[in-house]
Amino acid sequence: MGNNCTTNKAEHHETNPQKPNKQCPRCGTWFHCSHSGKCWCVAYQLSPRAHAMLEEQYSDCLCENCLRQYEHI
Hints:
- By secondary structure, the protein is mainly α.
- It has one domain.
- Helices cover 21% and strands 5% of the residues.
- β1 (22-23) and β2 form a beta hairpin.
């Protein structure tokens, strides 16, 4: 994947970038996901191990606070 998003692009509903369009499956926080190379999640450099853990545990994108916790795994 080009970014840290775990969902299929077709599943995204692009809306106003200021409006939350996803709910974090880990903590329940609403956030905006653009599912593109311009999304905030590309700033996080996750290891292959962290990516595998995320894909195994969650079927959708995590919010920034939760994703940050996987950055150093």
